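=== RUN LOG ===
request id: a7f3
mode: sequence -> structure
chains: 1
length: 218
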Amino acid sequence: MSSTPTLHRLAEELREQEKFSDALKIYSKVIKQYYLDKNYFGIADALGGQSLTYKHLFLVNKKQEYVDLAYGSAKSSLDIAKKYKVTTILHRCYFLLGEISMLKTDYKNAINNYQIALKLFPKINSEKGDFAYHLGEAFYCNGQKILGSLYFYYGIVLIKLYSAKTDSFLIHVWLSGAYLRLFALTKVKIYLNLAKKIIDSDPDLIIRRRQLSHFQNP
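=== RESULT ===
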């Protein structure tokens, strides 16, 4: 089915537009077709996208069932990657499990998963910076504030350093996310202003715009 990658991209776009129900329907179709095609990278990748969708649903609705569903999809993604030796996606699988551990406030487990993700990360680029700042957040939330701050700044430096080689939307997502999390943890207003500047510059940052509104109107 040649249209499966196209449908997969559509599911990603719908998720970023906060059309979560539509995204989940398409992810289900995509995962089934990837199974039929024996495309195990595709299965693991789509399960990861499904997990992210459930994560955002939890952040919007605060229903615990979405955390459980997000974990189930992330764990299935890792299981598929391990079973079929899809090593090129393992770092993202562990990163997702780190994100779900953060939702559960299980910071030690989040640190462990993020550290594995960084260790497995195949190269140095802006996305690795995204991974690094998430590890920084986990350390910070676990009470290791100095180490957390170091990873935050290391992540921001990497995101900026390789930004010319990466899609601008992703750079905006990662940088604004780092600044929003820094503001949430430190209450230093400059981080909120930096995030706002990025978010205001990119109309496609729909999820980030909602998150910014939450911080501006708690």
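=== NOTES ===
The chain has eleven helices and no strands.
Residues 199 and 205 are 6 Å apart (CA to CA).
=== END ===
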